Amino acid sequence: MLGTIIKGDHIILRPLDKADIENRVRWFNDPDVRQTLIISERFELKKTIRWFEKIQADDSRAEFVIETPQKIPVGVVGLAGIDSTHQTAEIYIVIGQKEFWGKGVMIEAESLLIDWAFNSLGLEKIWAETRPENIASLITMKKIGFQIEGTLRNEKIVNGQRTTVLHLGLLPEDFKPAHKQPKI
Question: Model-level pTM greater than 0.90?
Answer without folding.
Answer: yes
